[in-house]
User: Which sequence fits this backbone?
C-alpha cells in the first residue's frame, strides 16, 4: 500500500473520531446548562442589596431629624428646621445634614433661639438675634417694621428694625456715608498677635446661596482686626467694619489664613469642632443710638 495514502486515510479517521467526541461533549454541556437554568428557576436568590441596606440602617439606627423629633417631642418638620438652621450639634460639632443616619442613643445639643429686645422707642427696635434665625423671618414677628440691617443666619447679635420708612431711609443713608460703627467678635484659627487692617476688594455671587471671594475688580471693603485673647491655637478678636459687604469678615479673615471657626463655607476643611459659626455682632451705633448685645460671648463661643 502507498505509505502516503495510508497516512492520509488514518488522519481522516482520527479527525472524524475527534469531531464526534467534541460533538458529544458539547451536547452534554448544553444539557447540563439547560438543567441548571431550570433548577435556578425554583431557587430563590437572596437580595444582597436589600440585605445590605437593612444591615446598614440597623447598624446606624435612624435619620437624625427623626431621632431629634422623638427625643425632644417635636414635629419632624420642626426637627428638620432646627438642623437646617445650624442649631443642632453632636459632641460639640454642628450637625449639617438632617438625613444623616445615626445610632438611636445619639445625644443632641440644641441651641436656644431667643430674640431678646435690647431697645425700643417710637423709631426703632433693636434685637439680640440668636444663631439660626434668618433676618427676614423677623418681619413675621414685627410685621409693621422693616429691616435696617441684616445678619447672616449663622451670625448672632445686634439687628435693627425701623418702625417707619423715614427712619429706615435715614439709616440707609448713614450706612452709605459710613457714619455707622459696627463691632463684631470672632473666634479664629491660629494665633494672631498684632492688630491688622485688611483692605481687599470683594465680589459676591448670589444664587440660591450667597458666596463671596476676593476680587481686585470687586467692591471696596475694609476690616480692622484686633486680637483680644489667645487660647492655644485659637484667637478671640474684635472686628470693626466701616463697610458692610456680604460675608466681609468671613472672607477677609479666611484670606489671611485665620478663618473663623465653625464657618462651613470658607473653612470647610477645619479639624476644629464647632457647634456654630463663631461670629457675633456685639455693637451697632448710628443716628445717636448705641446698641450693644447682652449675650455672654465667652459662653456663646464655649471659651474660658
Assistant:
Amino acid at each position: 500500500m502507498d505509505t502516503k495514502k495510508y497516512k492520509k486515510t488514518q488522519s481522516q479517521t482520527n479527525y472524524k473520531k475527534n469531531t464526534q467526541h467534541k460533538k458529544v461533549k458539547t451536547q452534554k454541556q448544553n444539557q447540563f446548562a439547560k438543567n441548571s437554568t431550570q433548577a435556578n428557576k425554583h431557587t430563590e436568590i437572596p437580595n444582597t442589596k436589600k440585605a445590605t441596606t437593612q444591615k446598614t440602617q440597623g447598624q446606624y439606627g435612624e435619620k437624625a431629624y427623626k431621632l431629634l423629633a422623638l427625643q425632644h417631642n417635636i414635629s419632624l418638620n420642626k426637627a428638620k428646621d432646627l438642623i437646617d438652621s445650624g442649631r443642632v450639634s453632636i459632641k460639640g460639632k454642628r450637625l449639617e445634614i438632617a438625613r444623616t443616619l445615626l445610632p438611636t442613643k445619639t445625644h443632641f445639643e440644641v441651641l436656644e433661639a431667643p430674640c431678646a429686645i435690647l431697645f425700643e422707642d417710637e423709631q426703632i427696635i433693636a434685637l439680640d438675634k440668636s444663631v439660626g434665625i434668618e433676618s427676614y423671618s423677623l418681619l413675621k414677628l414685627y410685621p409693621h417694621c422693616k429691616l435696617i440691617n441684616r445678619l447672616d443666619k449663622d451670625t448672632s447679635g445686634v439687628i435693627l428694625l425701623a418702625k417707619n420708612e423715614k427712619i429706615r431711609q435715614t439709616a440707609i443713608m448713614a450706612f452709605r456715608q459710613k457714619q455707622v460703627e459696627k463691632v463684631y467678635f470672632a473666634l479664629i484659627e491660629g494665633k494672631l498677635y498684632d492688630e491688622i487692617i485688611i483692605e481687599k476688594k470683594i465680589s459676591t455671587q448670589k444664587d440660591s446661596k450667597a458666596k463671596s471671594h476676593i476680587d481686585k475688580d470687586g467692591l471696596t471693603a475694609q476690616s480692622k482686626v484686633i486680637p483680644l485673647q489667645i487660647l492655644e491655637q485659637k484667637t478671640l478678636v474684635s472686628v470693626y467694619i466701616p463697610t458692610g459687604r456680604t460675608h466681609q469678615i468671613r472672607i477677609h479673615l479666611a484670606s489671611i489664613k485665620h478663618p473663623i471657626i465653625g464657618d462651613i463655607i470658607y473653612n470647610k476643611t477645619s479639624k476644629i469642632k464647632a457647634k456654630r459659626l463663631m461670629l457675633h455682632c456685639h455693637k451697632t451705633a448710628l443716628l445717636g443710638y448705641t446698641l450693644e448685645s447682652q449675650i455672654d460671648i465667652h459662653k456663646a463661643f464655649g471659651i474660658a
